[in-house]
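Customer ticket, subject: "Can you confirm the structure for GH16 domain-containing protein?"

Message body: Hello, I'm evaluating your service for our small team and ran a test protein. I'd like someone to confirm that this is what the system normally returns, since I don't have a reference to compare against.
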Amino acid sequence: MSHPSKSLFFVVLILQAFLAVVLAQTSQLVFQEDFNTLDRNRWQHLITAWRGGNNEFQYYTNRTENSYVKNGVLFIKPTLTADRFGNDFLYTGTLDLNKEGCNINWDNGCFVQAGAEIINPIQSARIVTSKSFSFTYGTVEVRAKMPRGDWIWPAIWMLPTDSVYGNWPRSGEIDIVEARGNADLTCNDGQGKIGNSKMYSTLHWGPDGANNQFQKTSWAKLLSNGTYSSDFHIYRLEWLSTGITFKVDGQVVGSVSPPAGGFWQLSGLTGTNPWAAGTKMAPFDKKFHFVLNVAVGGNFFPDGCVNVPYNKPWTASSSTPMRSFWERKCEWYPTWYRTSRDDSAMQVDYIRVWSA
Ligand SMILES: *[C@@H]1O[C@H](CO)[C@@H](O)[C@H](O)[C@H]1NC(C)=O
Ligand SMILES: *[C@@H]1O[C@H](CO)[C@@H](O)[C@H](O)[C@H]1NC(C)=O
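Agent reply: Thanks for trying us out. I re-ran your input and got the following:
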C-alpha cells in the first residue's frame, strides 16, 4: 500500500520542480494599460508647436478634446485650431504655448506667430511614458484602430529614454505601427497603395540623420480586405536580445536578427561604430518608452502620388504648406467624419508588455 502513495509523492515532487522551471522562464506582465482612465501621470503630454521633425501641421496640447478615454478606449483625435481660436487667428495671431505649459521648445515650438505661413492649423496630442515606464527587451501587444481621414498620420512607437548612444537616430527608434488615414492614395513608384489599408513597422538607426539606415528595417503590410482604420487590429513587437520581430494580427510584418557585428555590420558603413560599447542589438539594447500620437500632414506624405478624388493640397518644396493645406479644407475635412465624428481619432484599447 505504501508504494502507490510513494510514487504519487515523487510525481508531485517532479511536477513541482517542472512548474518552478516553467514559471522561472515564463515572462511576466510588466505593464498593463487598459485605458479605463487617462492617467496623466503615467502618460505625459507634450505641449509644443514643434512640427515633429517632419514639417507636420499640428501643435500638441493636453486639452481634453484631443486626448481622452471613452468606454475603456483611449482616443487621440486631431481637431481644428480655428475651432478654438477662430479662422483669423491662423493668419494674424500668436500662439504662445508658454502660457499653457509648453515643454518642447525645439525650433521655437513654444511661440509661433502668423506670417506668410499660418499658425499650425491642427491641434492634436502626443503622450509619452518617458517619466513613468521604460524597458529593455520584452513583448508588446497593442490593440488599436487607426484614424480614418486624409493626411492623418497616427503612430504608436518607442523612443530611447536616455539616448545613451547620442542624438537621433544614433540611439534608435522603434515604430510599432504607423499608417496614413487616406482612403485612396497610390504611388506609381513601386510603393503602390499607401493609404489606410497599409501599416508600417520600422526601426530607425544610424550614426546621424543623413545616414539613417531605416530602409533596411522598414516593413509594411497591406490588407486585401478592410483597412486599419475600419477595425481594431493587434500589433505586436517581439524585442529580444537576439532580434526584433513585428507582427500584426499574428502575422509577421518584418524581422531582423543582426549579425555578430551588430547593426553597425548590418549598415555596411565605414568609419566609427557609434555602438561599439553596446551589444550586437545596440542601439536597441537600452531603455525605450512609449510614444502615442496623431500627426497631420508633413513629409510622411510624398509628392507625386495619386490621391482620390483630389490631389495633395501642398508640395514638399512649398514655403507655406500649412496655408496651402488649410485653404483646401473643404476637400479633406469631410473625409475625417464620413461614418462618425470619431473617424479621425486613433483608438487604443489596451497596451501590454511582458518581460523577455
Ligand atoms: C495641461 O497642462 C497645464 C500645465 O501643466 C495644466 O495647468 C493643466 O491643468 C493641464 N490640463 C489638463 C486637462 O490636465
Ligand atoms: C471582407 O471582410 C468582411 C468583413 O469582415 C467579410 O464579411 C467579407 O466576407 C470579407 N471578404 C473577403 C473577400 O474576404
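A couple of notes from the result: The first helix runs from residue 2 to 25. The helical segments are 2-25, 81-85, 87-92, 262-267, 321-326, 329-332. Feel free to reply with more questions.
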